[in-house]
From TrEMBL:
Catalytic activity reported: ATP + protein L-histidine = ADP + protein N-phospho-L-histidine
Sequence ranges assigned to domain Histidine kinase in this UniProt record: 294-512
Mitochondrion in keyword set: no
Record-given protein name: histidine kinase
Every Response regulatory domain range: 9-126, 533-649
SMART domains linked to this entry: HATPase_c, HisKA, REC
Family annotation (InterPro entries): CheY-like_superfamily, HATPase_C_sf, HATPase_dom, His_kinase_dom, HisK_dim/P_dom, HisK_dim/P_sf, PAS-like_dom_sf, PAS_4
UniProt organism field: Ramlibacter pallidus
Amino acid sequence: MPHSPIVASVLLVDDKPANLLALEAALDTLGVNMVRAVSGPQALAALERQDFAAVLLDVRMPGMDGFEVAREIRARPRSRFTPILFVTAGDDPDEAMMSAYALGAVDFLAKPLRSEVLKAKVGVFVELYRSKEELRARDRRDFEQRLEAKDARYRALFESIDEGFCVIQLLRDASGKVRDYRIDEANEAFSMHTGVQDPVGRNISDLVPESQGRWLDIYDRVARTGEATRFVEEEKAMHRWFDVYALRLGPDGSDLLALVFSDITQRLTAENDMRRLNEELAQANRRKTEFLATLAHELRNPLAPLSNGLHLMRLAGGKPEMLERTRQMMERQVQHMVHLVDDLLDVARISTGKVELRRRRMDLKEAVATAVETSASLIDAGGHKLHVELPAQPLPMDADPTRITQVVSNLLNNAAKYTPEAGRIDLRVAVHDGEAVLTVTDTGIGLAPDALSKVFEMFAQVPNSTGKPQGGLGIGLSLVQSLVAMHGGSVSASSAGIGQGSTFTVRLPLAKGDEMTTETNAAQAAGKPGQLQVLVVDDNTDAAESLGVLLDIEGHAAHIAHTGAAALQVAQSHPLDVVFLDIGLPDMTGYDVAKRLRMLPGMQKTMLVALTGWGTQDDRQRARDAGFDRHLTKPAELPAVEELLRLAAEAKAAA
């Protein structure tokens, strides 16, 4: 009989060792493990320890006979179905056989035993046992393989999801309150979302010592109620926000939870940024609308007095005093409009990074004096008293004098506008740590704390006591901040509150040394230029004629043309020293006219000056490429025109 790899055991029960030895000899070739028992209790103890293919049980044994042992075997779950073969040498085998079968015996063997019969009968039960165990082993292997495959699929799914996943065991104290939890299982994404490494088998209090108790309360509620929940919470100890789904695993009373979660910190940050940007855009749109309305109002205001002035000039006739007053009024209105347009152009240039500072060595005190003179009319109109305090020593700077003057003038204008009538304005300049510290203090309407951070914003305006703005475009202080920053300085605002005045402080770096040069000195050294032949080309008749009159007053010979073709005709018939040429002409562009002028005999050294409303760096470069020597932005200021005429006269005299 072939041996199975499964080892089968047979229990031999007899109180006589000789009978046990005989049984072993008869069954030796079956290849089974034979276990001896010399009493009923000893046999029952063996049956508790292991399973047997069969039990050969002697009927007549002292103390506990075979029937009692068989009855006990059948009463125990482990041995209930173990085959029992009775062996007896009694006088009445039939009666014993009936009792044996009644107790569930599978066979009854009478002594003397025939070894072939005994081996055959026991062999059947051994083979049955082996077959049954092989089937069990096969089923177990199949189950384990299916379990392994299922576990592999689960593990692949477990590790493939992007969300963090973990199974946690809640840990309670003696009173039943959740004090901590242990992470029993976690996927790889757990560490990606939390930043915590090797979490399995560790308590959250060890991984994140400062974790919030609110999380424990939520998990406790899920465990007690069995209701899954989803929530968004910040874990401040990790500086992260999480979107968490928690559910209980197991029946009521289970403290085992499964968590699926994601780190949503970046998403929330992006949403907050988007929300903030939307609010800023909405606010910027409101401010833009208000600015356009204010701009229309501010530009419309001078038109009425200008229109009235023209009417008065027609009526004044021979009344020089009325004409002079009207002229002065119109000059003020024109200057107001020019100032508004200049501010708008400065804003556009600064916003696009196209402002060019014309730095030179200058004295800050001269810029302050010019600014005071510029703002004097607005200060006087408000009946304010201005107090200026300057140090005795020069304040040398490497800066753009025009822009520094603009900074100081804007601060003085701002103080004059926001100070009630008959107020006081103090302008002080001091030197501290290599910087000029300029402060403008007023007794005006003051600033609320929340307005201090916004007062330098573009188009920002502070309402007065009536809640209405004081006029202007709300860009003066924004220009101040930008121009000061371009010079390497800083500006700040302070106020004790509404109705208690304001102070604006500007810090600008001073230059080393005290050598000064001024445009005034240079102009004085040059002397008055001689007469020049000047051509003015502009399709705006009023602009061309007015500039021509100014040139005549200055002693120059002025020629007027309103088209490019007319300008070329004048150039061919007159030698020209200077040409003021508008870019936007009806028949051709100023750039084309300039190129043609340069091709005419004697025009190579003529100073060509571009007149245009566009003043960006690209516009200036395009003018240079077309052959222009200089570039003036409309409306051209008289000092700039005079300076160009002086340079042209010097060049003519040198030739």
